Amino acid sequence: MLLLQCARGRATNQRYHIHELAEFSVEGGYLIDGFPSTGHTSAIASASLINAMGFMPVATIDSDRFPPVSMVQDSRPFHPTRIFADSKLKVAVFSSYLALPPQEHKPMARMMLKWARERKAEWIVSSVAVGSQIPEGKIMAVGSTEEARKKISGASMEVMGSGMITGIPGALLNHGAIGGQNVIVVLYNPAHEGADYRSGALLCTAMSRLVPGTACDIDALQAEAEKAERAMREAETESGEGILKRGMYG
After folding, report:
1. Which has the closest alpha carbon to 55: 243, 220, 215, 227?
2. Which helix (H) or strand (E) holds 11?
3. How far is Cα 173 from Cα 144, in angstroms, rounded to an integer?
4. What domains lie within the chain, and their CATH numbers?
5. DSSP assignment, residue 103?
6. Phi first, then psi: what are they for 102, rounded to 5°?
7. How far apart are CA 226 and CA 211, in angstroms?
8. Higher model confidence: residue 199 or residue 56?
């Protein structure tokens, strides 16, 4: 069982520790899963949303299962896995430079679902590359509930009829379908592995159609793609533990 308990700004469960840095609310709103999956595209799209909207860091996520990595920017260290939020928009983003190994995908998905329930977030939005299951340059989506599928159609996106979704997004869909949590996973076919500007722009735009009030800084997206790729590869090199692997982060 995964239990979240709040005490002195820290929420804990058996695997992960969430240290809250500021008060925020996402009641009735959205949780965006920005964990890397395949390639770099998912993380780049999430970072673009965070930067374009000026989301603030409100919590860090840590675990003994994470490598001992500290990211440094503007001479200041920060955790590689954080939560950003905007209380006015009721949106939170789980953002990470770390690609979790497969055995952590289900526990992380369960933690996200538990966190969303406790924070009363109505929607969880994730994304994943599905390769040849859809044409290159096309965006589709799949929803865990009938309400989620209607929302996809209402955003002028095609609902995937059949296929296979893996990783954290797949676990989110399964648990969401069982528990009645609205989960939408946006699907894309990346042009290539690495800092994929075109796929990042498509994905970020699709996510902004699903999450009201959000937008993407397309002009800055290419620079963000290159920046994110450098940071992730540096984290991979410095961790020395094989958690960040080519083709497993996005």
Report:
1. 215
2. strand 10-12
3. 5
4. 25-239 (3.40.50.10900)
5. G
6. -55, -35
7. 25
8. 56
**Cα 53 to the center of its chain, rounded Å:** 16
Question: Sign (positive/negative) of CA torsion 56, 227, 19, 89?
Answer: positive
Helices (H), the chain: 41-53, 105-119, 146-154, 167-179, 197-210, 218-239
Q: How many residues does the chain have?
A: 250
| Biggest CA pair distance of the chain | 48
Q: Are 77 and 68 in contact (CB under 8 A)?
A: no
Residue 118 phi, psi (nearest 5): -65, -35
Q: Kindly tell me if the per-residue pLDDT of 83 is higher than 90.
A: yes
φ, ψ of residue 24 to 5 degrees: the values are -160, 165
Q: What is the mean pLDDT of residues 219-244?
A: 61
Mean of per-residue pLDDT scores for the chain: 84
The values of phi and psi at residue 56, to 5°, are -105, 145
The single residue listed with the structure tokens 């397309």 is 218
| Cα(106)–Cα(118) distance, integer angstroms | 18
11 φ, ψ (degrees, to nearest 5): -105, 135
Tokens of residue 161, six digits: 């009829």
Distances (CA, A) of 95 to 9, 104, 132, 171, 188: 19, 16, 26, 18, 19
Residue 47 · residue 216 · CB < 8 Å: no
SS3 category, 142: strand
When pLDDT is cut at 50, 70 and 90, the band that residue 62 belongs to is very high
Alpha carbon of 164 to those of 106, 112, 143, 178, 190: distances in Å? 16, 21, 13, 17, 16
For the record, the structure tokens of 50 come out as: 């965070």
